[in-house]
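Hi,

Apologies if this is the wrong queue. I'm a grad student, and the batch job for Uroporphyrinogen-III C-methyltransferase from Geodermatophilus nigrescens produced an output file that my downstream script rejects. I'm not sure whether the problem is my script or the file. Here is the sequence I used:
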Amino acid sequence: MVYPVGLRLLDRRVVVVGGGSVAHRRVAGLLEARARVTVVSPEVTPALEALVEPGSLTWVRRRYEPGDLDGAWYAVAATDDPAVNAAVAEEAERLRVFCARADDRSASSVWTPAVGRQGDLVVGVHGGGDPQRAVGVRDAVVAGLTDGSIRDRAAREPEGGRTGSVVLVGGGPGDPGLVTVRGQQAVAQADVVLADHLAPQGLLASLPPEVEVIDASKLPRGRSMAQEQINALLVEHALAGKRVVRLKGGDPFVFGRGMEELEACVAAGVPVEVVPGVTSAIGVPGLAGIPVTHRGLTHEFVVVSGHVPPGHPQSLVDWPALGRLRGTVVVLMGVDTAPAIAAALVEHGRAPGTPVAVVADGSTPTQRVVRTTLAGLARTLADEGIRPPAVWVVGDVVGLAPRLDPPTA
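Support response: The file is valid. Your script probably expects a header line. Output copied below for reference.
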């Protein structure tokens, strides 16, 4: 039997021992609770590594040692070594720290429920030892809160003889609440999820343990999974009868290489569905109170990739035409190349004093907006320490924006 309780971990130390996909999923939920998370592991997934530099978590790059739980309020043992997990649990027991063992729930002093959120309401369900049952009831309660009906989700069909499929899900800017209902349903029904580090991490935290989560992150100037490998994994798991979800940030077809993934599935004879997402190009400025169009001010907007700078042989952007444009320009993946892009726009006709807004970590609790001009963009980015992910907007629409508070968790 368990006693259900909600832990308030705001600014309290939590230690996660392990750096794999299971640890990553636990960390996502802990960060949502605003805990001070320390990960102890010689290696971590690219998605976990991406959280270190902005200060979201502390990474201790070594194996677990006794004493690592000092000062902790909660601990997670999520390594692939049962002996290490047992040692973590034993230390936690001595210190009277609740500990969740990912490999042996019977040896855990706490069980993690299936969690769902609807507005400010949090639903946690324990399944009496059956994680999938807990997830099913959780999903039914959340769906009932959304549409007014309470129903249990149909049991999963056995994998034997089942035709596999792939769903390309746009995860939106990052807030799980901005994922479409169809996208949430697809993730909840998945057997395998290939996820980017920009995908909404809260959805991954709520998945049951038997769902395989594959880290398909592509870190700026860091490790990344080749697109060809991603395509091959989608096809491989689908042909094995799995329901596969490719979960990525924004919209799959807006600089998301979704078409390449769709073509790979079609070529292999795999059924594939596309679930559009809220593109960061529109959603993130909107969350900052910046419209990309406005009656009487601008009737056009252009979304460009800043992945390669003006003048680069691989660039397909007509920068002279954008310099002559009166409307709004939205730049994605353009933090490092921003100085060169701003200079090109000014060179080709845009006024140096044209307003610019940079929105970093859009839709998350750490969202922040920095306002400047094309002439001052390079200096502002450096002074403010802006790092990806960030979207920047050029045009008179920036001056319309009220100063909105960032989204709350």
